[in-house]
Amino acid sequence: MNTSKFLTNNEIWKEMGKLITSPRRVDAAIAYLGTGGANLLRLRKDDRLITDMSMATVRSGGTNPFEVEKFIRRGVRVFSRRSLHAKVIISGNSVISGSANISHHSKDVLDEAAIWTNDPAVLRRAAMFIERLCTEPVRLEYLEQCKISYRPPRLSGNQRITGEGQHRVKPTKLALSIWYLAAEFLNVKLIGMRRVWTKQKN
């Protein structure tokens, strides 16, 4: 049975943890990888990670090359993609796609959202997307250059930027079906068409 769920904040990391610990290979395209990212995303040998490790992003602190080095030491196959802004994780028959980068700032401070699904059509498209990104492996020589150029970001993981008196959105027990939403949309359209047809008839 095809299922889809809308996730927020801690729910995202809980579902992500289930994907990472599955026995199947994990493919992750995560635009930015912050300090502590190697512990937040426990990828293993032969898993694949695509991240934006362009020199400009490294110098601005968007991706931490020291975290990338930890992945490489684990045997993770790491690729760089300068134009990457997506956040997609695939394992087995499940895919999560949303807004969250791999950082403590994303996990603990920001309001994030994502969709989890096991829809086969979505999985096929996501897998094709991942394959197209794996074109530029991170070589050790380039990694060393990035480590020299890296500058930590200005915002630390424990800083709150949501403003005084604001709080993160609390997780809700909300399961959304893509097919249900589509059916609701079509139902609204049909009601509108029926009203127009009735007016024309009268």
Structural notes for this entry:
The protein is an alpha/beta fold and 202 residues long. The chain has one domain (8-156): Endonuclease, Chain A (2-Layer Sandwich). The chain contains 8 helices and 7 strands. The protein has helices at 10-20, 37-40, 55-59, 65-74, 104-108, 120-133, 140-149, 178-201; strands at 4-8, 26-30, 48-51, 77-80, 87-91, 94-98, 113-117. It has a 7-stranded mixed β-sheet with strand order 1-7-6-5-2-3-4, with helices on both faces. Strand 2, helix 2 and strand 3 (48-51) form a beta-alpha-beta unit. It is globular, with a radius of gyration of 20 Å.
Write the layout of secondary structure elements.
Layout: E1 4-8, H1 10-20, E2 26-30, H2 37-40, E3 48-51, H3 55-59, H4 65-74, E4 77-80, E5 87-91, E6 94-98, H5 104-108, E7 113-117, H6 120-133, H7 140-149, H8 178-201
Parallel strand pairs: 2-3, 3-4
Antiparallel strand pairs: 1-7, 2-5, 5-6, 6-7
Helix pairs in contact: 4-7
